[in-house]
Amino acid sequence: MSYFRHLCSRFSPTNARRRFGYLSSGFSTSSAPPDRYAGLGPTGAHQKPRVVVLGTGWAGCRLMKGLDPAIYDIVCVSPRNHMVFTPLLASTCVGTLEFRSVAEPIARIQPAISREPASFFFLANCTAIDADNHQVKCESVTEGTEKVDPWKFTISYDKLVIALGAQPTTFGIHGVYEHAIFLREVYHAQEIRRKLLLNLMMSDVPGITEEEKKRLLHCVVVGGGPTGVEFSGELSDFIMRDVRQRYSHVKDYIHVTLIEANEILSSFDVRLRQYATKQLTKSGVRLVRGIVKDVEEKRIILNDGTEVPYGLLVWSTGVGPSSIVHSLDLPKSPGGRIGIDEWLRVPTVEDIFAIGDCSGFIESTGKPVLPALAQVAERQGKYLAILLNKIGKANGGRANTAKNVDFGEQFVYKHLGSMATIGSYKALVDLRQSKEAKGLSLAGFISWFIWRSAYLTRVISWRNRFYVAINWATTFVFGRDISRI
Amino acid sequence: MSYFRHLCSRFSPTNARRRFGYLSSGFSTSSAPPDRYAGLGPTGAHQKPRVVVLGTGWAGCRLMKGLDPAIYDIVCVSPRNHMVFTPLLASTCVGTLEFRSVAEPIARIQPAISREPASFFFLANCTAIDADNHQVKCESVTEGTEKVDPWKFTISYDKLVIALGAQPTTFGIHGVYEHAIFLREVYHAQEIRRKLLLNLMMSDVPGITEEEKKRLLHCVVVGGGPTGVEFSGELSDFIMRDVRQRYSHVKDYIHVTLIEANEILSSFDVRLRQYATKQLTKSGVRLVRGIVKDVEEKRIILNDGTEVPYGLLVWSTGVGPSSIVHSLDLPKSPGGRIGIDEWLRVPTVEDIFAIGDCSGFIESTGKPVLPALAQVAERQGKYLAILLNKIGKANGGRANTAKNVDFGEQFVYKHLGSMATIGSYKALVDLRQSKEAKGLSLAGFISWFIWRSAYLTRVISWRNRFYVAINWATTFVFGRDISRI
Description:
CATH topology of the largest domain in chain A: FAD/NAD(P)-binding domain
Organism (chains A, B): Flemingia macrophylla
Number of domains of chain A: 2
Function (chains A, B): Alternative NADH-ubiquinone oxidoreductase which catalyzes the oxidation of mitochondrial NADH does not translocate protons across the inner mitochondrial membrane.
Subcellular location (chains A, B): Mitochondrion inner membrane; Peroxisome
Strand order of the largest sheet of chain A: 7-6-5-2-1-8-19
Shape of chain A: globular
Largest sheet of chain A: 7 strands, mixed
Low-confidence stretches of chain A: 1-37
Family (chains A, B): Belongs to the NADH dehydrogenase family.
Largest interface: A-B, 75 and 74 residues
CATH class of the largest domain in chain A: Alpha Beta
Catalytic activity (chains A, B): a ubiquinone + NADH + H(+) = a ubiquinol + NAD(+); a quinone + NADH + H(+) = a quinol + NAD(+)
Oligomer: homodimer
CATH architecture of the largest domain in chain A: 3-Layer(bba) Sandwich
Number of strands of chain A: 23
Radius of gyration of chain A: 24 Å
């Protein structure tokens, strides 16, 4: 209960009045019966058990989709009320797809969230977990549009699923957070798009030197994983098809450089890597082997001293554990993720599970930490939904009641292969089960067709499937939209 | 030339170095031959004459669409690289239409802007006009994403068309700019949407009082013109169809109030006004006759002392001359707009025209100042394009050469009628030519169908026609999207 003291000291009635002009103490404790407006207290015998899900990424959303609302009330806490279909995010930066086509509201993924009287979505961040008392501490997100301090509340859980994801790695390089843009959220894609269009227009303003023009229109991507490669490919498509037509004054100044310390697409088959390298080079993407040492406002410095001026810098060098994961007093896997056992449980505590990029098998399981892939997260979410439904049916849904339930089969991950598009209607499909295994790998237009078809069936709702198809068709017919809104 | 001195004093080489790291003096003057990168100097005999268009609203865009790029080079200066299809903007706030469906890039309206070597679009604001020297002074727009001062440059024109539009009227009421949102640009619609969705989610957070919940979900619209009424109608559709389903916990708290000092839709036929009042009331919109005295962060105060708490405040009480129009040393019409004669020329100066909301007939023409309507702006743009093409063909395109050209027929405005949607698949169509005239007026579903069809054929490009139709169809089938991106 130690965090409650800390909480109560910050949350004085004076602050409450200042915030919302009323006097409720604002927090339930497990000893007193919960105030109606003071958070969600422990569930009673007349209620369904409550699953609290932290996060709305692939893992959390797939879990919520699979949970049976007849068995559980579902409470989701996330600063984002939608899931981002990340594999298609790179396409939205240049207008091939619309932003909204790759965002799926949680209420469409699990309608119970908005329909059931005791299921909720809270636009908030989890700030602490009190495993002893089965409670999470949350702070509402206001994003500065309401001039109030964040609103704090606690939620009691019967089962807690941590699906908080990861954060981009910067390797401690100075200036990355200030000057580079990541590519993980819709607002990142919006920022990239706005900056790209601004630079295209700025470079056409009279009085700009040749040198400045070149800088403004130099797009640098750091990180040669699938995200970096797909974004580079989309960008070169945009340049070849749309910039040439819509910004013909500056078309010869725009260039894309992809910087990677090792090899691009290192998880793919060597033949596919070579194909990707050849195709990207052919599309005008300059591939540079290098390590970034420092990022300044208008240029990056490589380890060998090379200075690279840029107008747009996109950073996608993979992900690592986020600060909230670091701060949690839970066992860790190799690499610092939340440690889980074969059933995705956090072993030292009761009723807490962790899935997706924030979790990894603890060493004693003898299993390797799985890669931070949508595929892994999705499979874990699906598995855990089935497991939790099973536990609920066996009367183990309530807090501290699952000890004697048979959990059944362990979670086993089977890699279905990797896909990446590289622009110019070409893609790579690697169907090998691991880096070392042998198996089918494809490159070219057929792969691109498979890639599109596969994503189209995986975009969750029919609405978005329809919109993605429409977006692709209109891009093909009319080109990409260039309004800077 | 007085503004040049002012300019040069601010634009020292030291500043230039700080900005872009080079030394060009940055400005052409009419005496020295223009530097290639220092603005656009006067056109030479080997070039086409240059039409400079200030603004990308209905008037400016319709003009550019009609100008013949074989006769003129077209240079457009505006802080916005697209035109907003304003009649459909209210629908984007609640997700009935996508933002991009109502935005049309200038390069699609007049492709010469990006294809012709001497036609340009500059993302900039006009800050002064030097009519004696046929030059405009501009400042580039950077919007803070590039940490540089705005870049300044001048453009010489052969013909100048001022189509700078108007700005919202606030009647000097304190707090409007700080707390209310206008509904004139795509970013306004985006802000309204984000705030509406934030308030819906905030009101569901545990710990919020009943009173605060009601405030957060009270949407107040000030101004009962077509924009205010259409937005209220869209909002009540959104509440009745989507909020009830997606935000069922708070559905009984959300309300819409429309405040108007006089009568709603005062330019429409009295029968239509009564119909609109009845329909809006039926859809749950509270119509309040009142005058706003003061706007605070969370409530507005009416003249009679009533306090109205709100969570979202949209202000649409019409428009008036903008500050740049005030500052221009040009003749004015009654009401302070730029004065024009029967051929849309600014009479005291050579080669300057003004169209759209920024312009009005001078008193000596004996004509009334036309209403600030898209219809008027569009018609003026169309007329002026034909006139300028005619002047160009008669060898009057170059600066100071149109004195002896026969301008032909005067501009005559014929009102084609007004339309407004009021939600619930109902609209008003008033085909009378003026407020006093008799003529056809329609209300109900048929009007709504006419309204949709009319707008669909008027949305400029085929791409956007297609998208508006698709958006309407998906809203009908799947409901509105609620992702807060």
